[in-house]
Amino acid sequence: MANEEFELDMGDLERRMDGAIASLRTEFASLRTGRASASMLEPIMVEAYGQRTPINQVGTVNVPEPRMVTINVWDKSMVNAVEKAIRESGLGINPQLNGTIIMLPIPELNEERRRELSRVAAQYAEHARVSIRNVRRDGMEQLKKAKNDGMSEDDHKFWHDEVQGLTDRFVGNVDKALEVKQEEIMQV
I need a surface site. Which of 7, 90, 107, 117 has the fewest CB within 10 A? Predict the structure, then answer.
């Protein structure tokens, strides 16, 4: 490989880091900010038919008014499983049953709950940073292998800086997204 030109697949690393950001956005969407949103239920999985299933695959999720989410569960035998999944999700919502319809009244957020949600958002952001750093580590391992296979010191430094720059950019995006979300949560 000493004579070959090494080319690190930066597109692959960037795509994988983008995936971490997309996952973070989904998790942030699930954090309620005092307004009802169907997306707040997306991360919740229900134990249904022997496997974990998203709520929107066991019922219809609606937002009939600004402070209410309803789930019309298709299979009556699944109502209790859906209710249990919501209670255990950590959203802080108390489901109310009405036949096969589960109503989720969204209470006003008090200061303590806002701080708690802000900490949850920070945890989500940290998970995204860890995912991005894992992608960085994979890229650095490829560079290390290439260096052992005869890559020049200059090429190694160039690619190292490229991977680090990409990582820094994505971690910065996570930090910005967290700042925006925490501002939104703390807004009264």
Answer: 7
Kindly report the average pLDDT of the chain as a whole number.
88
Q: Minimal CA–CA distance to 43: which of 30, 57, 32?
A: 30
10-27+110-186 under CATH 3.40.50.1000, yes or no: no
Residues recorded for the chain: 188
Domain ranges, ordered by start, for the chain: 10-27+110-186, 35-105
CATH class (in words) of the domain with range 35-105 = alpha beta
3-state secondary structure of 21: helix
* pLDDT, tens digit (0-9, with 9 covering 90-100), for 67-84: 889 999 999 999 999 999
| DSSP codes, 65-100 | ETTEEEEEESSGGGHHHHHHHHHTTTS----EEETT
The residues near 16 (Cβ < 8 Å, ≥ 6 apart) are: 135, 138
**pLDDT at position 2:** 42
Q: pLDDT tens, 121-156?
A: 999 999 999 999 999 999 999 999 999 998 899 999
Most confident of 41-50, 88-97, 147-156, 170-179: 170-179
